[in-house]
């Protein structure tokens, strides 16, 4: 399914407006959870099928704000695959990516495909378990910027409500 969506995205006739996509797919994931297993395998499989896939390979993040290059990569991708894993919500970068991804879904008619890697979609949607714990920590850290945390909460709920793929392995 992802391959056919990505290949459609490469052609401007598939979209209701003319937009040239630099990437077919943008991968959003928590590096420490999935970089050296699931995400590497997914990335390799997509590339083998000729699907142009953006994956941020920068393991060590400097600063707390998402880079402009990453925001541009999200904007330039027809599809975003969001790999929700146990520690996804503990990363401000991941949460900022998710907000941007959902903004682009609305403004650019991009597709978003959630993958629930060893997490329950309802825990993501309802902010339970590790997602609830991470958001509680974010509320303490950003007590003077609660609008930011509210955006993250809303983005998690919205993305988890999309049809996706739960994976236990």
Structure commentary:
This protein has 169 residues and is of the alpha/beta class. The chain has helices spanning 2-9, 31-34, 38-48, 68-75, 92-108, 121-126, 130-141, 146-160; strands at residues 23-29, 53-55, 77-84, 111-117, 165-167. Helix 4 runs parallel beside helix 5 (92-108) and helix 5 packs across helix 8. The two termini are 20 Å apart. A five-stranded parallel sheet has the order 2-1-3-4-5, sandwiched between helices. Mean pLDDT is 86; it is low at 5-17. Helix 5 (92-108) links the parallel strand 3 (77-84) and strand 4 (111-117). The protein has one domain (2-7, 20-167): 3-Layer(aba) Sandwich (Rossmann fold), CATH 3.40.50.10140.
Poorly predicted ranges (pLDDT <50, ≥5 residues)? 5-17
Q: What is the helix content? A: 40-55%
Roughly how many Å apart are the termini?
A: 20 Å
List the strand order in the largest sheet.
2-1-3-4-5
Number of helices: 8
Overall shape: it is globular
% residues in beta strands: 15-25%
């Amino acid at each position: 399914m992802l391959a056919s969506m990505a290949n459609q995205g490469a052609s401007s006739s598939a979209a209701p407006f003319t937009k040239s996509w630099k990437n077919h797919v943008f991968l959003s994931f928590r590096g420490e959870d999935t970089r050296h297993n699931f995400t590497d395998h997914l990335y390799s499989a997509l590339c083998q099928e000729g699907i142009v896939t953006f994956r941020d390979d920068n393991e060590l993040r400097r600063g707390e704000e998402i880079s402009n290059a990453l925001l541009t990569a999200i904007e330039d991708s027809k599809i975003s695959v969001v790999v929700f894993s146990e520690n996804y919500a503990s990363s401000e970068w991941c949460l900022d990516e998710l907000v941007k991804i959902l903004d682009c879904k609305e403004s650019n008619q991009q597709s978003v495909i959630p993958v629930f890697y060893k997490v329950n979609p309802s825990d993501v949607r309802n902010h339970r378990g590790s997602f609830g714990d991470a958001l509680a920590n974010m509320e303490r850290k950003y007590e003077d910027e609660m609008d930011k945390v509210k955006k993250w909460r809303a983005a998690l709920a919205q993305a988890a409500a999309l049809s996706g793929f739960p994976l236990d392995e």
